[in-house]
Amino acid sequence: MPRSGNGHNTNPPRDDIVHGDTPVTGMKIQGLPADLESANQALNEENARLKGIIDDCGRIKNELRLSKENLKGFLASLPHSAHLIDREGTVLISSEVSPARLGISLDEYIGTNIFAHLPPELAAERREHFESILRSRETVSWEDTREGRHYAHYGSPVLDNEGNVDRIAHAAKVNKAMLYY
Hints:
By secondary structure, the protein is α+β, with helices and mostly antiparallel strands. About 40% of the residues lie in helices and about 25% in strands. The strands form two sheets. A five-stranded antiparallel beta sheet has the order 4-3-7-6-5. Strands 1-2 form a two-stranded antiparallel ribbon. The protein is elongated, with a radius of gyration of 32 Å.
């Protein structure tokens, strides 16, 4: 509290403050402009709006966590390779099958370039298929062989908000029928 040079309180006496319904909205101080109450009301409305936004953020965060858990569970259940890659071939998400075949962990695999794990000729061939998906904006299927295994591949474009292909969903499975030839 401000004090005068003689040590006495220079604020008006406490009976100048009238308490209302709540500690935040009900305090009125005599001698302030008449529009303070409307400013206080606007502040309370803004606080309520912000509280609603904060509550929405909490709900959205919870939904995102649940969505991430669902995706992780789904990918873990897949018996085949499945990836989401960006336009350059960076692995964004993946099932555990591909990294296991490469002898690395899923955490080591995420963020790497999918083509870096392939022999150069096979990488170039698969890159052509991915480029075809980017150009055509259509699902493409093809087959190839790696390390004695014949694979059936499926790649689909994933569009951004403007309708441009910015990711590719790719799945590959070992074609068991071809293992016997």
